[in-house]
């Protein structure tokens, strides 16, 4: 990797996974100050507007200066790729410059001293179903007498609209959801979920609004600002009773956790890989035969109470984020700054590459044995799930995505 100039903030503060090639954004509160838009360098957060104020006057556009003088990413998302790139280049310039190293390091705040909030205001939220291994597994478990893959699956990225208002930043504990599910005798009964689960996903943050419709595959880079690890907590018993025929609703709308750090797309330039080979001809708007590679080499580790229980390979996801975005807008629907979509539960070929306990433990019929010898199927009160991932970064660096953690509290 490029060694940062001695004395620069990058040299003083940067660490593997969070060096000058990464620079994820978040919204932090420090004592009575904040929330403010921050950028992460090593185990510190820096106020973006303060860092960019160190650029020589005239080097930053008014649009960029105004957008970062803000509590979160919202104003920056409302700008466009040119401004996004300008801000990142400005941060890299200041943080790599030894002249500013001492001042920036003195103003840096240890992560242990801040509270991270939602990095942006979620506008609309869509959750896709883009991974073929997951879709086949869930099909077999939920609909054992039918073809696992529905007839539409290879023709379009299936998705449903989720609940934007219950997306929370990592570290937010939540009570076990309650709802109507079948009791052991098959009678619909109200009560706490008995099949509380996770879904390991990558979420994509959108910006550069389009008032109405159509973001072609070639424009995806101009609208996908960045990405974040996402856990779409799912109450399988509530979900499996309610979802016919309109899809998931309360079984998934109680809480969705994201990492508070949004990794900019530019930091993942080296992690981009081709998606799995397509075996079904696609409509022109989805046909990515000759498109730039739009998948990512990301291995997502899933930890249950600190124990790694699965490693989910994102690159196995069949539909790409560019295709999902093209699909979301092909009917004329525009996009707003802060729109967010998750790509679907990530699973691979092997059992311990699956991104949900539903799949790993096959609907509860195949418990897994934890390190302490106990058997596990679905989440218990007090369980904590953490997701983390690394990817190859620019110039030989490593990108460590921000962690996505949550804990289940007893039902209220
Ligand atoms: O009913 C089904 O086949 C599956 C439902 C889901 O798993 C929904 C979901 O959240 C999609 C995903 O994350 O892949
Ligand atoms: Ca999901
Ligand atoms: Mg959810």
Automatic annotation (TrEMBL):
Mg(2+) binds at residues 232, 252, 256. Pfam families: FAA_hydrolase, FAA_hydrolase_N. GO terms for biological process: homogentisate catabolic process; L-phenylalanine catabolic process; L-tyrosine catabolic process. Its cofactor is Ca(2+); Mg(2+). Pathway: Amino-acid degradation; L-phenylalanine degradation; acetoacetate and fumarate from L-phenylalanine: step 6/6. The keyword Zinc does not apply. Ca(2+) binds at residues 127, 199, 201, 232. Keywords: Calcium, Hydrolase, Magnesium, Metal-binding, Phenylalanine catabolism, Tyrosine catabolism. NCBIfam families: fum_ac_acetase. This is fumarylacetoacetase.
